[in-house]
Design goal:
The structure is a single chain. With 895 residues, the chain is α/β, with parallel strands linked by helices. The chain is 37% helix and 22% strand. The strands form six sheets. Strands 1-2-3-4-5-6-8-7 form an eight-stranded mixed β-sheet, sandwiched between helices. Helix 20 (575-583) links the parallel strand 25 and strand 26 (593-597). The longest helix is centred in the first third of the chain and has 22 residues, at 176-197. The radius of gyration is 32 Å and the shape is globular.
Length: 895
């Protein structure tokens, strides 16, 4: 459903050339412009368009387009600065599932993707109307219209229809359509950042004539950094600043700059932005902090009106180290070293630390953006840029918030196949989340954020230091084939510390085979320990250490090598000699090697070596963490292509009817009663264990007589529309064996639960099994998350629940089942026999489909879910609905 799109004022999106347009429903006041558009189309293509193709005048066609939106009739237009660029609409003409498609694009704009973008959004609306087929007769046979249809990624059929040709388009979503949309988004997104990150001319507003200002530092960096384009300052009282020509206003510059950097007072920012928009500027960087809500809204509105991309406000700036450009529009103390790491941050302080750290390591930076409050440009935009810039091979994104997490997830899943994407999992605690909210006004929940990182293959570290440590390894070393690490040291204690660090990081120190042990004994001095860790002793020579290292690296039982070295005076081999054993071996090895030097001052450095170098760490835990991150990335890359879990036997139409009926009766939403809950779950093939509903003592007695379970025992549980806390209110009775005890239990529940209770659910006492929890929670930012973990008394303790964003793929379902601590119980490790894992997989897939189909689903709790060797059984369920509209994440839009 996409009424959300058609009822709100507008969304903004990028055309193929990166320019911004506004997509909105057609209004009656658009009639005159649309009539002019139809006349223009008819003159340019006499055989295309409604007026000619349907023997209608341009005025009549405009009347049809301006008709009020209703199921079966939708009309959207694209505009820029008040000018209509194109229109797309469909009409069913009474046919419930088929509609005529009409597209009109202004002259000269057919190669910019206006029509394609409009149809993307119209297709989303069509699905909510139940339209399964578009007839595109009115588009005619001209090449531009045919390219539009072919590029949609939808099924298009061409059939003869008398002297003409009929084309039908199926707006059902399959793999080709999302892929086509993503491809167009990637191209448009990269094009939209060209004026920001590759400007031909830059102007700085607010440089000032007094030393020490932020604007002056920005102008200085641009000037002395060798920016190869044209550079201007804007100051009403100066003709030159720092040797840079200065002009009184943006509109008085000799040429229109692609990028303007604004460093003036907060109150002046919207005014300057308006001047930039009118002058034709295409991108802004606003470093100014302290904009209030009104100023912020005004700034973003100006950028949207004139199609300017915006970084900031309250940011450090941007840079691009391409030699042919040398753009350093930041006020950081130093300039970044040119390199291959793309960096996007929100915090300027974090940005400065990363620029310094990556430069110190010799990795350097390709492009850098400090996003600040991130009104417009975000992490997703930078990922798209790095994907296609031809320079970046590492993406570093320690972001505190996400503009559109689902768009970011789609992009990250694709980009992480080509390069590592690293972040910092900040805000892990409540205190951290409060700090993030105060800083960025967009704190996110830890389970949702971690689910996104895991599903997209993003490497999430816990600190900036750990991020740099991991980046050093990713930049220089190949990925390991697994988690098996060999530890080589010249000091026994160093080897012990390294072994502990590896085990704590989830790595494995394998036992060596007889042949490897014999070979190592031949290579090392007498007294060496040739297990794992390998203690080569302080007497080892450079040649002996090198030979031992190369033998370990070649062994098929070793996936990675950690070399822990301590300088000694036992032999003539100095610390530098031993390092040469590591760094002067053959070129880039097939397996990663990390060095630990306990006497090293810096947390991490890169030792010069063949290839890109070897990372050296000051302590073993850092090296082990980096190797563990590399092993997880390798495992993620080895996974085959994944597909969304697709259970059969789903009745989506009936589910929507149930949700609509409940919300009609309860406009503010609320919990479903047990019968409605069971009906909704049955639409998705999720059956509840046998149960009965009792509103009186007599009902309870009858129900208990029919629902006797193991040894004739039953369970009675209180229910109410509001929250009833089972443990606090003792809202459950087990084993009331006779009529008197059933009646007494019912009265006790009435007394304990009082007004919230409207009845009692009676069910048989279940057989033995592992109690689990499965559920859905709707996150305001990330959308629905599917949760899975232990049940029973642990149900109210969410720490051990695994979470994944819906819709779940087959891999996601597997990860949910194997992630919690209860996983050994499901495999029969405790002697109860393996649980019905296929039944659990089906349950989670069906729960995911429910979450995706119903945006009104605020939360669902299936608890306990009983897993045993027999079929999976859902013993109880609670579902809460709220009046929410669907958000289709697929059509392209700026946040």
């Amino acid at each position: 459903m996409t009424d959300d799109l058609l009822s709100r004022p507008a969304v903004h999106a990028l055309l193929a050339d990166g320019t911004t347009v506004r997509i909105r429903p057609v209004l009656p006041g658009d009639h005159d412009q649309l009539e002019g558009l139809y006349q223009e189309v008819a003159a340019e293509h006499p055989r295309r368009g409604e007026p000619a193709g349907r023997d209608r005048s341009a005025g009549t066609a405009a009347d049809l387009a301006c008709a009020p939106a209703r199921p079966g009739h939708r009309a959207l237009l694209a505009e820029a600065q008040g000018n209509v660029l194109g229109l797309a609409r469909y009409d069913t003409d009474g046919a419930p599932d088929a509609a005529d498609l009409f597209v009109a694009v202004a002259a000269g704009l057919h190669d910019r993707g206006v029509g394609t973008l409009l149809v993307e959004h119209l297709v989303s609306a069509a699905r909510s109307d139940g339209v399964t087929t578009f007839t595109a007769d009115a588009l005619g046979e001209d090449p531009e219209a045919l390219r539009l249809l072919a590029g949609l990624g939808l099924r298009v059929e061409r059939r003869p229809a008398g002297p003409d040709v009929r084309r039908t388009v199926a707006p059902d979503e399959d793999d080709a359509h999302p892929s086509a949309v993503e491809t167009r988004g990637r191209v448009a997104g990269a094009a939209g950042l060209e004026p920001l990150l590759r400007p031909g001319a830059v102007a700085v507003v607010g440089a000032g004539r007094v030393p020490g200002s932020v604007g002056r530092a920005l102008l200085h960096h641009l000037h002395v950094g060798g920016f190869t384009g044209r550079l201007f300052a804007v100051d009403p009282g100066a003709t030159s600043l720092l040797g840079v020509p200065s002009y009184p206003a943006v509109d008085s510059l000799p040429t229109t700059p692609d990028l303007v950097v604004i460093a003036g007072p907060a109150a002046s920012v919207p005014v300057v932005a308006e001047q930039c928009g009118r002058a034709g500027v295409r991108a802004l960087v606003v470093v100014t902090a302290g904009l209030d809500d009104e100023q912020g809204r005004a700034l973003l509105a100006v950028c949207r009106t004139y199609g300017m991309r915006l970084v900031g406000p309250d940011c450090l700036g941007v840079s691009n180290t391409e030699p042919r450009l040398c753009l350093d529009a930041t006020f950081a103390a130093g300039r970044p070293l040119p390199g291959t790491a793309g960096v996007a941050v929100q915090s300027g302080g974090v940005g400065i630390a990363l620029l310094e750290g990556l430069s110190r390591l010799g990795i350097g930076v390709s492009t850098f953006a400090s996003l600040g409050d991130a009104y417009d440009v975000g992490g997703n935009d930078l990922l798209q840029w790095w994907e296609s810039d031809g320079r970046t091979d590492l993406a570093v994104l320690p972001l505190e918030s996400f503009g559109d997490p689902r768009a970011f997830s789609r992009t990250a899943r694709r980009v992480t196949r080509r390069m590592p994407v690293l972040t910092v999992d900040a805000g892990r605690t409540e205190a951290g989340r409060r700090a993030a909210a105060a800083h960025t006004a967009a704190a996110t929940r830890t389970p949702a954020r971690r689910a996104l990182f895991t599903q997209a293959g993003v490497t999430a570290t816990r600190s900036i230091g750990e991020l740099l440590e991991t980046t050093a390894l990713f930049h220089t070393q190949p990925l390991p084939a697994g988690t098996r690490v060999a530890v080589l040291t010249n000091a026994g204690v160093a080897g012990v510390l390294a072994a502990d660090a590896c085990a704590e990081a989830g790595l494995v120190l394998p036992r060596f085979g007889t042949r490897l042990v014999d070979d190592l004994r031949d290579l090392l001095p007498a007294g060496a320990a040739v297990g794992n860790p390998v203690d080569a002793t302080a007497a080892v020579t450079e040649a002996g250490l090198r030979a031992c290292l190369e033998r370990l690296v070649r062994d098929p039982a070793v996936d990675a090598l950690l070399v822990a070295l301590v300088p000694t005076a036992v032999t003539e081999a100095t610390g530098d000699d031993l390092l040469r054993a590591v760094t002067r071996g053959p070129g880039r090895r097939e397996r990663p090697v990390a060095v630990v030097r306990l006497d090293q001052a810096a947390p991490v450095t890169l030792l010069p070596a063949a290839g890109d170098g070897v990372p050296s760490y000051a302590e073993p835990r850092a090296a082990a963490r980096a190797l563990a991150h590399a092993a997880r990335r390798a495992a993620w890359l080895r996974r085959p292509a994944d597909t969304v879990a697709a259970p059969d036997g789903i009745d989506t139409e009936r589910a929507h009817e149930i949700a609509a009926a409940h919300l009609t009766a309860h406009p503010d939403g609320g919990r479903l009663d047990p019968r409605t809950c069971a009906d909704l779950l049955s639409c998705y093939g999720i059956p509840l264990a046998r149960w009965a509903w009792a509103e009186t003592e007599d009902d309870a007695v009858l129900a208990a007589g029919r629902r006797r379970g193991v040894d004739g025992r039953v369970v009675m549980k209180a229910y109410g529309p509001g929250p009833i806390h089972e443990s606090e209110q003792h809202a459950v009775h087990l084993d009331p064996r006779d009529e008197a005890r059933v009646r007494a239990a019912f009265r006790d529940l009435e007394t304990r639960c009082a007004e919230p209770m409207t009845g009692v659910v009676v069910r048989p006492l279940a057989e033995r099994g592992t109690e689990l929890f499965a559920g859905v929670v709707q996150d305001d930012v990330f959308g629905p998350l599917v949760l899975f973990g232990p049940g029973g008394t642990a149900t109210e303790v969410p720490a051990d629940r695994a979470a994944r964003l819906a819709p779940l793929t087959d891999h996601d379902v597997h990860d949910l089942i194997t992630s919690p601590r209860c996983a050994p119980l499901l495999s029969g490790a405790h002697g109860d026999g393996p649980a019905d894992l296929e039944g659990l997989r089906q349950l989670l897939a069906r729960l995911s489909r429910l979450a995706g189909d119903l945006p009104q689903l605020a939360e669902a709790e299936l608890a306990p879910v009983l897993a045993a060797p027999g079929p999976v059984s859902v013993l109880d369920a609670r579902i809460r609905l709220l009046p929410r509209r669907a958000h289709d994440p697929l059509p392209r839009r700026l946040r």
